[in-house]
Write a structure and sequence with these properties.
Layout: H1 5-11, E1 38-44, E2 51-57, H2 71-89, E3 93-96, H3 107-120, H4 127-134, H5 143-151, E4 154-155, H6 161-176, H7 181-216, E5 223-229, H8 233-242, E6 244-247, E7 260-263, H9 265-268, E8 272-278, H10 279-282, H11 285-290, H12 305-308
Parallel strand pairs: 2-5, 2-8, 3-4, 3-5
Antiparallel strand pairs: 1-8, 6-7
Helix pairs in contact: 2-4, 2-5, 6-7
Length: 313
């Protein structure tokens, strides 16, 4: 599974700053949320039976596929947060950023996989064990792959392939044009436009995919986890707060001059939304600032003993 979030972080630092929202809902619905692994920074319509849980994550390097200094720890936190959502909120669908291959399996192979998963399901591995497995640079592995392996969670593509490939092509052209400052500046604007549109399209596709899987009988509830790079989170929160997506095309653009404006489908469909940042990222002020998030307002709300009695069981 590939991700272009690292490239987005390098060239398109969001101008929007996540600021305090006095109307923010209390985090999730249960006092047992694993705050040692993550922080809820945004919540909307928490009582809705349909829900999208968005987790801002950190990916391996796009080209080398190796871990950064904290990648494995962040990925382990993502795994433990998702594991809790699967167990406590009944989530059965995972929507990971990036493209991944899905090859058909024979009936015999599927029976073997199901048997192995049945033996592993219900097992909760320690945080350290998960982190150590994710730290191995000789094998490409991430939290989403482990969730599928140990919990058998259903996965669906959420990327728009054309946009994903357009971003990759733009990155390649930007690398080639590094010595031409004018060309590089134009390509950076183009990249930011494509990346923001890519973020918006993924967000817009989420309720459609959830409804499709629910009606197919794959899911018992209309709930899903959407994992995406932290660099996209500030834009997503802006769309949700403004209740509309507005993305303006660069004035000098080779990717078209059409602005992208749409109402947010999740809000139109009355979905509940929770946005969670892994603790390692939430506790790093520099990382938050670099991604357009004000460290002074993270967490926006926190679960404390004084609030537990007001949270429904």
């Amino acid at each position: 599974m590939g991700s272009l979030s690292a490239a987005f972080f390098l060239f398109c630092i969001p101008g929007f700053s996540l600021a305090a929202d006095q109307s923010a809902s209390p985090p999730l619905s249960r006092a047992s949320f694993p705050s040692s692994y993550g922080t809820v920074v945004f919540q909307h319509n928490e009582n809705s039976p349909a829900h999208l849980y968005i987790i801002g994550t950190s990916h391996r390097h796009t080209v080398s596929r190796t871990n950064g200094s904290n990648t494995a720890k962040v990925q382990a936190e993502v795994y433990k947060i998702a594991e809790w959502l699967i167990a406590q909120e009944g989530v059965q669908l995972l929507l990971p950023e990036g493209l991944f291959k899905r090859k058909p399996e024979s009936d015999e192979r599927m029976m073997l996989i199901t048997s192995v998963l049945d033996e592993k399901r219900g097992n909760s591995f320690s945080f350290q064990a998960v982190k150590e497995r994710l730290s191995n640079n000789s094998v490409y592995l991430n939290a989403e792959m482990l969730l599928k392996e140990y919990h058998g969670i259903h996965t669906r593509q959420i990327e728009d392939r054309a946009l994903y490939e357009a971003v990759g092509e733009c990155l390649n052209r930007l690398e080639d044009a590094a010595v031409d400052m004018t060309e590089a500046a134009l390509l950076r604007e183009e990249l930011c436009y494509l990346q923001e549109k890519r973020t918006a399209v993924m967000l817009q596709k989420a309720p459609e995919i959830i409804e499709e899987e629910f009606h197919r009988g794959t899911l018992a509830t209309r709930k899903a986890i959407f994992t995406i790079g932290l660099s996209h989170i500030a834009d997503i929160i802006r769309y949700l707060r403004e209740e509309e997506i507005k993305i303006y095309a660069p004035l000098l653009s080779r990717v078209g001059t059409d602005d992208y404006t749409e109402a947010v489908h999740l809000l139109r469909e009355q979905y509940g939304i929770a946005i969670i940042i892994p603790k390692t990222l939430a506790d790093d002020p520099e990382v938050l600032r670099s991604n357009g998030i004000d460290p002074a307002v993270v967490p926006l709300q926190d679960i404390s003993p004084a609030r537990e009695e007001t949270i429904s069981p």
